[in-house]
Structures are given as C-alpha cells and as structure tokens.
Amino acid sequence: MAKKGNIATVLAFEKKLVPSDGFMYGTTWGKRHEDNSSQPLKLLEKSVRGTISNRLKAAIKNDPLKLNAEVEKPNLQRVDSCALGTNQDTLKLNFTLKVLSGVQQPSACNHHEFNSKYTQAAEAYIESEGFTELAKRYAINIANARFLWRNRVGVENIEVNVKTSGTDQQWTFDASKLSTRDFSANSPDIAALAGRIAAALSGKTDFVLLEINAYAQVGKAQDIYPSEELVLDKSNSKGGKSKILYNVNNVAAMHSQKIGNALRTIDTWYPDFEEVSTGPIAIEPYGAVTNLGIAYRNPKAKADFFTLFDKFALGEELENKNDEHYVMAVLVRGGVFGESGKE
Question: Structural domain tally of the chain?
C-alpha cells in the first residue's frame, strides 16, 4: 500500500483521445456517399400540451375531486426537437478524433521521485503491451457506432467510414454486425485501425487524426437525437424551453464529451462484470454509471483507480494485466489525480 507523501499532490494528465463535436446531417441511404447529398439538420421548436404524469401526494391521489382538478391543469411546454426531412431516411454524423502520444509524461507533477517511478512503470507497460488491447477496444467502439447512442436503436442499416488524415488509408464497417456488448470482434480492418491508434498512444507516431462519418438508416422523417443541453440557470425557466438541444451554427450536434464517453466505454474488467447485465462501462476512476446511480469500482473492494494507480505508479506489480489496462485507460482519459496534502 502506498504511503501518504509518496504520491504527488499536484498530478494531472491531458486526455489522449480528443474527439470533436459531432455534426448531424440528413441524407438518403442510396445517395449517402454522393457529394452535396447531405443537408445540415436544424433544430425545431415545438409547443406541446402535456398531461400531469408525475407521482402525486397521497392527499391528492386518494381524493377523486382533487385528482381531477390536478389532471385538468395544462402542462404546457416549449421544447427543441430534431428530425429528418420528409424525403430523408438516413442520419449522417461527422466528427474527427485525434489520438495523442505521451501518456507516460504527466502534464503537471510536483514530485520528482514519483514522476520518475511512474514514467518507468508506464514505459514498461508500453514496451510489453503497446496499447494493443486498449486500441482494439477503441477501434471496435468506432466500428460499431456506439457513439450514435440513442440514434443507433431501431435502425435498418448502420455504416461507419473512417479516414486517416494525410493518407489514402480508410476503412468501412457494417456496424449492425458488430456487438456493443463485448470486444471479441476481429477483422483485418479493425486490426489495421487499432494498429494506427496503438502506434499513436505508444509514441511510435506523434498522433493520428481520424475523420469519421457514420450513416444510420433510421427511416423517413424520423426523430434524431442530438445532445441535450444542461440548463443550470433556471431563473427564467417559466417563459423558457423545458428541453434545449445542442447545435453549432444552426447545425444539430452531439457534444464531444458524449462521443468521448462512448469511445472509452471499454471497461469489462470491473468486479461482478459477469454477474450484472450492464455490459461494458465507461472508463471512470470509480466506475461510475450515473444513470444507474452505481459506482462499480468501490474503494472497499480495492478496485478503484486510485488504489490501483498508487501501486502501479510506484512500481508494485498489480494482480493481473486487466488492472494495468484499466489504469492506463484512465490515464488516456485524463484528469487530475493528485493526493490531498491534508489528512
């Protein structure tokens, strides 16, 4: 167990997977590869009259008169929405992904001895593993179009095209044939894409820039789901919209953070993975899945990032390679991981 004071109090790592925002366009499946066939999707504003559907207090729900009075109240809402045009049946999502090297060097570290030990440990991992396992998982999450999120559900066809900047190298994947539940998929194209990612992460190349276009045949005029904005200032919510969707220069879009979360959903090494139906979870220091309200990597089980990282960075051997993969994946994610100087 690492003793207090052996870990840097100022310790930060820059993220090594850097996606752009994802921009959304409408097209048709048969013409998806034709120039000028895609049109930017714009947000629409709707005014709707909803019904009261939330849980009510016992005094109201047990009194028919009070219940009727409550139900009669109009639930008026103004919301953003997004949909394909009447002659469009396919969503096109376009974004770029930059993969950087240098994970063995923290962007900030105020403890020279710790920095030296960590660098040795990280370089040993790179020498033995070369990021091949992580790169394969990132490549599969690109190929299976996990980053489409809700737009991936109930589609007829999904295609992902990946191009490398500055070269003629590109790959096309039929995402509908690739599972999002495991990482057992193998193909020459996945291996080639993973090789480019691994080369960048391990420092064989300084970086690689990928341009990714995903096509999802969702159906004519069907709803599309951009990212939803988190509205922190609700002081003017009475006259405002109850749902605000993300757009960039009037083009519907998906947050880069949401795309990044999908790409790093590779953790199948957390405790009880075989016993739960969650499937892979995003790489997080405590294995947090916020929509379920669960932290799968509880410090009591000594499976959280900080417990494992403190051992790994000081040269202690972890129980298995999967723990090393997880630790390095968190560092690829980036973050501030310094030890508090206070008790």
Answer: 1
